[in-house]
Design brief:
Elements: E1 4-9, H1 25-37, H2 45-48, H3 55-64, H4 69-95, E2 113-115, E3 120-127, H5 133-149, E4 154-161, E5 167-169, E6 173-174, E7 177-178, E8 185-189, H6 190-198, H7 203-220, E9 222-227, H8 231-238, H9 242-251
Parallel strand pairs: 3-4, 4-8
Antiparallel strand pairs: 1-9, 2-3, 5-8, 6-7
Helix pairs in contact: 1-7, 3-4, 8-9
Amino acid sequence: MSFISRFVFKKKIEMSEYNLQFISDKDLYKHVSKTVQAYSFEMDLKKFNKNLIDPIKLTFDSIVYEQSYEDTIENEVLRQLDKTNSNLIGYFHQNIFEYFSDDWDVPSQGYDIENKKEKIFVEMKNKHNTMNSSSSAKTYMRFQNTILQDRDAKCFLVEIIAKNSQNIPWVVTLDKVKQPTNESIRRVSIDKFYEIVTKDKFAFQKLCYILPTVIKDVVDDLKSRNKKNTVFKELKNLSSDLLTSIYLLSFKKYEGFNKFKF
């Protein structure tokens, strides 16, 4: 059974030089540090079962993959933590732009990123295939409304993981009708958006290259402290048998489960 660690600050060590022209070393370190500190390392039984654990699937997973039940549960804990932490990567991608220039804003409401001076409005998505037709239509119509209110506005759907490096008109189909091309509504890969913001064609590549160094600097400036993962302890309170505990967690109110035990 493994433990999950969390980080706490210790005395600051000397920071590396990152030498990115579009963001200062201090701001880059600060932004990465905020992201790392927000990582979730805690899990208890209530949080673990928030999305309702499926004992049947867990049983299949354990036996088919030839894992112990402990390892299968631990993997589920890590999967749930990973899902939470994935949202933090969205925070990282979105909020870094406010460090590039005072013109770029990350508002608490409205678009994900805005530059009112250049009249650029951005919705950011992690992957090109994460938007269904309904979500695409809603975003596109929002873009259309912005363009109608200001003919000089430019609206970008920025994708972190796109199929290609691109800055192209975004054409969608609404109510089975393909919309006419509007040059002000665009589908932009993250590398091309960095180029728009920084005027540096390779800005995103440069960030990716230095990012492992920055993360290591931040983590090295933190000390590890064991943080108890209470899921297993709380499951033991339900039954001394771990698999029995998982079934009781979900099915204890069902007929016949009042005396259920493997």
